[in-house]
Specification:
Layout: H1 9-14, H2 20-30, H3 34-39, H4 47-59, E1 64-68, H5 74-81, E2 86-91, H6 94-103, E3 108-111, E4 125-134, H7 143-150, E5 151-162, H8 171-180, E6 184-195, E7 200-209
Parallel strand pairs: 1-2, 1-4, 2-3, 4-5
Antiparallel strand pairs: 5-7, 6-7
Helix pairs in contact: 4-5
Pfam families: Methyltransf_11
GO molecular function: S-adenosylmethionine-dependent methyltransferase activity
Protein name: Methyltransferase domain-containing protein
Amino acid sequence: MTTSTGGDPHLERAYTLSGPDDARALYDEWADTYDADLTGEAQGYVAPSATADAVVAAAGTGGEILDAGCGTGLVGLELQRRGVGTIDGLDLSPGMLERARATGAYRDLREADLTVALDVADDRYDAVVCVGTLTHGHVGPSVLSEFVRVVRPGGFLVATVLDDIWESGGYRAEVDRLCAGDVLEAVSIEIAPYRSGQQVDCRLLVLRVR
């Protein structure tokens, strides 16, 4: 792993997780200080804001959006500030969901493991947004097919993938496979700031479901 953590012990642990149980334990422990730790100058976690801009530019503000891996609700708050009215959230950690609930940005919040099939109906949402979850030790590229399944045709998947693992983690190959199979259309795939305080970038994906 080469991604800079700025010496943050929670981030260092997050990038070496051994599975969902380990992830749940970490994020329950981290929930109370997560926002302060990441949004301060040292880390400069700008991905939620940039991704919310991309969601609104692609899908507008009137649809139903699923925030997959919603954490403490940073993305939901950014979407709410931009006028999005209907946001549901999924996360593995009850502690993080408690913080997200306190934001008031979400219609519904539920515990879910993104490494297995989602308990969500086909074609349920106008867009899925996923920020900070397609990264070291978290959720692999196979989740993209699940996101596609729950988005209505013509809807959008907007996600960040940590730049260090875009290719080595198989995300690029999976996006290419889904686009070649006429499942997705790549609207844009751009390198964007992720944690600007540590000069860490991501691939910001805007994908249209066919």
